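Hey all, sorry for the wall of text incoming. These are the two entities for the joint prediction.
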Amino acid sequence: MTTREVAYRTVTIRPGANGWGRGLELTPTPERNKVISVTGGGIHAVAQRIADLSGAEAVDGFRTRVPDEQVLAAVINCGGTARIGVYPRKRIPTVDVFPGEPGGPLAQFITEDIFVSAVGPDEVELLDGPADEATPPAQPATPAPAQAQAQEEPDTAPRGLLVRFGGAIGHIINTFLAAGRQSINLTLNTILPFMAYVSLLLGVVIYTGIATAIGNLLAPLSSNPLGLVAISAVVALPFLSPILGPGAAVAQIVGVLMGTQIATGALPVQYALPTLFAIDGQVGCDFVPVGLGLGEARAETVEIGVPAVLFSRLITSPLAVIIAWFASFGL
Amino acid sequence: MTYYRTTVTSVGPEAGDMLAGGVLILYAEPLPDALADVSVVHRPDHRAADLAIGVGDVVSVGGHELTVTAVGDIAAKNLDELGHVVLYVDQPDQKLLPGAVHAAGGLPDPQVGQVIEFRTPH
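and here's what came out:
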């Protein structure tokens, strides 16, 4: 086995004294093979060491523009606010040569799986252990041609079935693991806060009785088509719909009332369909910000998207009632 | 005496969010895009040989003056090497990070073309 077949090798980076994190394992790929040194004053020894051992290329992040998707890792010497958060936020593995720890406005992004600190050159080692270490240092002398060959060779060189099988299994497991991690993150960061928020909203709505009061207020309107349009407009008012959504008090009160009226024959059955649309204009309005969050919308999108949806409800909700009213003629 | 004077060349799209949280991140050109997004980027016109930032110094952002209340261990080195300073404005309770400079005097509103100055009080 020549060294070129394994031009890219996995390095482990552990936290140094007083460092934070549990350590990182990095393996370059032909696409992701740059270690950017965002330290100022050229390429930091730690970045160079990671590059030398793994077969990746070290570049000065301040002088050379490297697209994010090519970055294997960012080496920083951060004072605790900006660089320490910017790269973890982009999910770029980040190696701080100072003993930094999560802090500052981007603290939430600085997690153990992506960040390690107080790293010196001694904390960077090959995963296979130092026994093989003698071979790679020959490469950096002529980085460019070696790189080019290194990228070509792995494709053509025959690789053992076992190695490929192992690689495939590793890929599958990693994918599942990442999926699990994302699910937990989503649950923790989006779904649980949403449940807490709805519980609070529901508590306020039930305690104050506001939704029930509005429902009772609107109920008399439901006996004629125009009243139904009015109900749909009121429940879809942008400042009311988010409070009327959880608990569905209006839908219950008006719905039950209409149901009994229709059942006793006091109102024709044609009222059922328009009523359904009239009392449900608010449905989901409390969920809009969370829905956008689940779709990983940016803050600006949420800021504009929430009022956009709420106001559009004010238009579509009465329209839906009218359409439903026409549609119910044949019933 | 003004020991560092620089002109704002761009304000990152997320610099405003940072500032709203009381954090102003300065970086001199050139710098990676990832950092430019959250930073107020500038090009220095004047810098004294000694860039030691001291408590009581004045940081003027487009005429809006802030008074330095605390200086992290590597803040001066960052300013010297990268034109990089993280100003925590009006946040006395925030733990002093090594690269941070704490200052009081209200949030500035940095705009492209404005001059930022660091000067000693007298």
